Amino acid sequence: MQMPEMNGAQLLQQVRAQWPETMRIMLTGTADLANAVAAINQGEIYRYVSKPWSDDELLGIVKSAVAFAKLAKERERLTALTQEQNKALENMVETLEEKVQARTASLRQAYTSSIKAFSVLLGLRNVRLLEHAKRVANTAMKMSQLAGHDHAMSQDIFIAGLLHDLGKIGLSDRVLNTFIDNLPQSDFALLENHCALGATCLKGLEGMDTVAQMIRAHHENFDGSGYPDRLVGEAIPIGGRFLAVIEVYEELMSGDYDGKPCNHATAMRTILSNRGKLFCPQSVDLLAKVMGGVPAPAQAAANPAAAPAPKAPATAVQGKDVSANLSFRHLVETIRKFSHARIDDLRTQPNGLLWVRIESAHGQGNPDLVIWLKGHGFVWSAEQGAWRHPG
User: Fold this and answer.
1) Is the dihedral of CA 223, 226, 232, 234 positive or negative?
2) In CATH, what class is 77-296?
3) Rounded mean pLDDT of 235-245?
4) Is 266 helix (H, G, I), strand (E, B) or coil?
5) Residue 217 to residues 45, 116, 280, 322, 356: CA-CA distances in angstroms?
6) Is 178 in contact with 213 (CB distance < 8 Å)?
7) In this structure, are strands 354-358 and 386-389 parallel, antiparallel, or unpaired?
8) What is the DSSP string of 341-387?
9) d(Cα 320, Cα 180) in Å, to the nearest integer?
10) Across 48-52, 126-130, 164-168, which has the greatest mean pLDDT?
11) What confidence tier does 141 reach under pLDDT thresholds 50, 70, 90?
């Protein structure tokens, strides 16, 4: 603060004016509150540190500032990208509205064709997204027809299948190219948002409300454990229920969860094991019929030892499940609801355990969280101030 010609607050004010993206930290021994307030107000500093300082604390502040700056830039990039995509959607809406006015007789056909063309944008972002979208759409259409839906409903379900991953256009390459089970919690939260983002992108497209609802709900689970709205049972749009089970089938077959693709029989057995739990029973039955049923293991009866081991359920994290009744992903989704708790997985270390650590000010944690943890086998460790899973 005490410099000739220009004090520290004035310097930071100049830096803010000329290089606004700079992270500004004030380190001073001056115990003048007015100077500190001036630096905060004029220079918009990130942190104020008094002398003498702790090296570890100062290093932590610098690391935090760098991380904050990176997050701000990433947020700006994603916002700009979303705005660009919304502009593209607005342009598409204008084109579609002109076609509706000019060719009323062929409205549905022209509209569907335009939507198919729009889905190519997925391919421009990631060719695998487009290939996946086409497979999901075709399977969803067959299921809808088999269910006896009218032509309009089947078309809506087909379009929802084509565009269900539209929200992924705004995700980074890192998130898109990382297996789901390997995503850190922060990236998984970004991935979860693609359902809502995809539905939002379709706002303003005439006649797309039903399709948008299906897209928003295509990761909802029948038992209410899905996202983004935790819908349960028939509260989930029928198209969303179809897409949910097809999506998991596709991801199991392709190995998108952990990089280990499985065969049709194993994928269908995994899905059947979650019938009425994660997946709508009707949707599972329709998928089984469209895909040709569930082949029995060829060698299981004659040679049980040769039968392939069943894969983990679709929501499980391969090799990381907490127990037979609790997948690691379910644990992550639950802990995410409580801001005072975090997961510390040390199981890859010698004698390491799985911990759920609670901020000291919250004791053993929120009462609802405590009941949930106890119900899933976690044990409180007063010494660690955390819950551990003995498995």
Assistant:
1) negative
2) mainly alpha
3) 95
4) helix
5) 42, 20, 13, 27, 30
6) no
7) antiparallel
8) EEEEE-TTSTT--EEEEE-GGGTT--HHHHHHHHHTT-EEETTTTEE
9) 13
10) 164-168
11) very high
Q: How far is 219 from 248, CA to CA, in rounded Å?
A: 9
Collapse the DSSP code of 25 into the 3-class scheme (helix H, G, I; strand E, B; otherwise coil) and give the result.
Answer: strand
Token code pair at residue 164: 């269900």
Query: 66 Cβ partners below 8 Å, 6+ apart?
Result: 23
Tens-digit pLDDT profile for residues 359-373: 888 888 887 788 888
C-alpha span between 173 and 178 (Å, rounded): 8
Cis upstream peptide for 228 (omega within 30°): yes
User: How far apart are alpha carbons 116 and 163 in whole angstroms?
Assistant: 9
Q: Phi/psi zone of residue 241: left (φ > 0), alpha (ψ -120 to 50 degrees), beta?
A: alpha
Which residues in the chain are classed under CATH 1.10.3210.10?
77-296
The SS3 call for residue 91 is helix
Predicted structure pTM score: 0.53
Alpha-carbon span 185 to 193, nearest angstrom: 13
Cis preceding-peptide flag for 52 (omega within 30 of 0): yes
